Amino acid sequence: QVQLVESGGGVVQAGRSLKLSCVVSGSIFAIRNMGWYRQAPGNQRELVGSITDGGNTDYSDSVKGRFTISRDSAKNTVYLQMNSLKPEDTAIYYCNAVILTPWDRRNYWGQGTQVTVSS
Description:
Layout: E1 3-7, E2 10-13, E3 18-25, E4 30-39, E5 46-51, E6 57-59, E7 67-72, E8 77-82, E9 91-100, E10 105-109, E11 113-118
Parallel strand pairs: 2-11
Antiparallel strand pairs: 1-3, 3-8, 4-5, 4-9, 5-6, 7-8, 9-10, 9-11
């Protein structure tokens, strides 16, 4: 059984920083792409940033220059460093990973962590 567990969310003032972490555990052969998504009330879930197993990254335009995604393959962990936070960054943030197990290859999701940015 594979699990993704996020941590690091909270309430911060605009302009401050937060760092999210997501740890993958379970019977894993390999972790391919990893990413962070977010969903604000009334909105669809959207991609924030992604990182390949080779370390290539991609970001949504709304967070470019402010957020940085990274991964520690030895720890099966992906991070999202969020700087210069804005009230519009308020959302539930979800970790996503494409994982190879002894049985299949598919997308897995974490349970989400709330980020609230006050003005």
